[in-house]
Amino acid sequence: MDYVFLIPILPLLSFLIILFTKPIYKKAGLVGTTLTGAAFLCSLVVLFSHFAQGNYLVEANWFSIDTVMISVGLEVNPLNALMLVIVTLVSFLVHMYSMGYMANDERYATFFSYLGLFTFSMTGLVLSPNLLQLYMFWELVGVCSFLLVGFYFYKPEARAAAKKAFIMTRIGDVGLLVAIFLLFWQTGSFELDVIFQAAQAGDIAPSLLTLIAILIFVGAVGKSGQFPLHTWLPDAMEGPTPVSALIHAATMVAAGVYLVAVTYPLFSASEVAMTTVAVTGGFTAIFAATIALAETDMKRILAYSTISQLGYMMLALGAAGYTAGVFHLTTHAFFKALLFLAAGSVIHAVHEQNIFKMGGLSKKLPKTAALFLIGSLSISGFPLLAGFFSKDEILATTYGDGRYVLFVIGLLTAFLTALYMFRLYFLVFLGNRSTEAREAPSVMLIPMMVLGVLAVVGGYIQTNWFGTFLGDWLETTPYTIAFVHPEAPFWIPLVASLLAIGGIAVAWLVYGRKTSIEESNERNGLHTLLYRKYYVDELYQGLFVRGSRVVAYFWMYVDRFIIEGGAAAVTYAVKRFGQAGVKLQSGQVQTYSTVAFSGLVVVLLLIAVLGGYF
Amino acid sequence: MSSVPLSAYLVTALLLFCMGLYGALTKRNAVIVLISIELMLNAVNLNLVAFAKYGVGASIRGQVFSLFTITVAAAEAAVGLAILIALYRNRATVNVDEMNTLKK
Amino acid sequence: MNESFLLTILILSPLLGIVLLSVMPGNHRFINYMGVLGTVLPLVLTLIVFSLFDRTVSGVQFVEYRQWFELMTSISPNEPYTVAYDLGVTGLSVLFLMLASLITFLASLTALRLKESAKGFYILFLLLELGLLGVFVSENLFLFFLFFEITLVSMFLLVGKWGGFNREKAAFSFMIYNGIGSILLLIVIIVLFVEMKTTNITELTMLLKETDSLEFLSGDTRTWLFVLLLIAFGIKLPIVPFHTWMVRVHVEAPIAVVMIHAGVLLKIGAYGLLRFGVGFFPQQLKDMAVVLAILGVINLLYGAFIALVQTELRSVLAYSSISHMGIVLLGVASFNTAGLQGAVFQTISHGLIAALLFLLVGVIVDRFHTTKLEELGGVASQAPLFAGFLLAAGLASLGLPGMSGFISEFLAFLGLFESMPVIGSVGILGLILTAVYMLRAVLAVTFGERRPLFDGIRDLTAVEIVPSAILLSIIIWIGVYPAVLSNTLQLARTIGIGG
Which of A339, C237, C274, C354 is deepest in the core (most CB within 10 A)? Predict the structure, then answer.
């Protein structure tokens, strides 16, 4: 357990080594992969020693505010031990994959140094025992995301996307920051333990607690791309595909869900906050799923799918399904990373992202196609795959919590998920369009295979049939959270499976049987609405971007005309006054002295008349 | 034995000063102006010496002061004449009216 | 504490450089190097002071006291007014001292490219440093004022002679605004002197605190004095609407001077506000805290909004300085330890970050001959190192955790949220805007398509990398380990609040 500190340090080392040693340029991938792999092994050790030894916490003083000592530390509890394994595993696999994917990029080493920095920040985030430290890493992962989205800095779209990603998440971050301030003044500490104890003891007024929980959730909304702060995530697909797999599918965007899970005692104390989380999650899930139906860019479909699945997790957490949310986070990390890596393999092979311009790739890329199929089945909730179990858990909790509307939405989303995933799959891999393509090298295939296996078997850590290992372990917390385990009706998994298969079938009917489908430019109203993503981007553009520019110009003119004008007016007045004075100056010394002398006489007379001082 | 009263000295000094002042303020020729200033200074000297003898706190200080004044006046006259000569070389005039460049 | 001459030697140390420079011929090839060397001695001495500074005891250290002159007045013939020459440093001033000599040294490096009349430049530059060091070690208001004026004069000449196209206008508006500030400051000093019979800062702080019974000054007088002080230092800080001079100076002055100006000179405003405003008139500050906080929010948002639409990099940075100084005001207004600590942190941190940013702007001016955003772009292709530094500096400026900007903003807002959560909530929107304008400006320079026009541009040279790297590492050091500031600062002891 005392080796926990190695987990963030190793990737940091990778970042620093690659950043500061130019000669190992071509070896950067190897260095990064090795060090992240070592970090992954450490995480595994930590995970297993957690089974034996339980929670672990080490802290050191950092600096002081007044008499309050702010500390930094590392904490291992079930939730973050699990997250550590997910993060380091996916990061390791993505490192390895990138050695193939980025091989010909001229900023190869830079890419790996960024990946190292990201892994460091993400593990640091997960290990934080206090909110201040968590927030710092929270922002750092945001910056890494920003750097990697803008990796192709010469593309204007990448620049815009990077900026957007940073700013949109920062809007959420500010909410989290305010929540941290409020908590500090309520409890006098940033330590999660102290805060939870205070919340449990009722030291925080209920209305304030609700406000704080919602503000924390705002942070999570920004990071996890939930509605209404979701628009940055699809744009973030401008980054290299391995990055999309690592940051924008498996780890960083899940940090929002993780945040809610970490601060769960605060949420569970407030019914309003829970409902907010559940409704936002449910709405986002179906909202993003519908957009994914009309999207034509392969990576963007996956991005909307990520948003939708993250919404699912939020829905679970809001419906008191702590385990369900975390469980889905885990399985999602596996199958979504797999999907992105497989998509990357396709893009690497054909240099094309529009699904209507691809087709018949299963013959050229048989391994990629098979792996992609596994991922698609898993995410669609095909029976007995990882996604099936976690999705089922979510639906059961939602039903058990009595949120029937959200339950129906969840079911609908499951159907839509299968539909858009297989629309993508059929269009890209079936049909008989022939494109030049070569299967990816094994350095890219191996990580995908590992993920493929996990996407199949990952679900068996928490099933009603073999045992609820994950749940039993996760729920060992000292705080009395109302963990709900409703008896789920037997028909839920059945209906869910039927809907998934139904979705696949519909996709087959529409897209699967035809040999090649051209992208049609004729769209009816609904299709256009979906295709334009409900015009959210346009709305924000008009409302906030334009709005702030208008305000900015207003103030700029105030600055230019009123403030500077005012100063100029004063200057002018002084100048005129001076000019009037100049007229008195004849340059005749004798005149001056006459005036001065007369003045002296007047003063003397006054003194004489008034007697003494005035 | 005080035959001449203090007031006589003061009136003389006053007349001297007024003459000097009149000259300094009205004469066009810079040399005359300088001489007038000397007159004013001498009026002051007269006052100082008179007070040194007949003043309330009569003491030698007044005379010492006047000695200083005389020295300073000499120096001042020298500097004044030097400036005047420099000006005359540049502007070819000693007319005070034409020396109005202070204006700008 | 034993009498030592360390501080006197410190403030006089730039004179050595001045003397050596003035005997060198103006066209000597090593004249620039001599100028740089001149700033090394003060830096070394400051480092000595900084390391000898005892962080475990409270109060003023390295005190030097000499009677200077006495004034007899008819008002109190038996008690002469004594003006003394006394120096000393507190935890607060030692930090500013360090900032001043470090940034002066680094700025002098950037002036190495100066070709014409470098001799005069460096002499004035060292004079400016002398003034700066003096301001921060003065233990009495007369000396403070004296050194303050030295900085004004040398700054005026530096801007007016070596500035850009509109240098004279910038120099004059600098002089006029700051002159007005000085007059107000002088009024405050004189009133305090007449009433309290001392100008020693520590003594005044003690006296004014002990005499809450208003034995010396009535509440109204104190309020007026505080307002005057606020305006005097507000012009320096600057507080909107007294900021136009500062934008002009930022745009026109030579880069080395802007580095000092943004990095240290503006910080005199914050220093004065903390040392005198908070120290002398805590009650008045508390009464006017809301006004201060509103001013702070206005500064923060006003600067940020205008920075958003500037088309020229220097203007963006100038308005960003205004915005960041708003956070200092917010920290002061919150009037608790967290807030005040945040204000000090922000001042120091912004000093470092602004210096770094302007250093890089200097590189832009040198290489690209323009600072217009639309004429730049894609620089990361040709000068990746430069782009990396600029991006890092931009991120530091927008308050990235792990860099000094974050911890200062965090503390300032933390403090503000205790006393004024509503104003805090409005102000915190500024953090979003900061990200928007900073990224906009930085990315406009570094990101974007490669421009063939810039092919063959030199990346950072060693003499540019060294100062940038020093600044950046200090920024990160403070961000990762803020105790380095808070241990020295000992806020409760220095200003005498909280605790």
Answer: A339
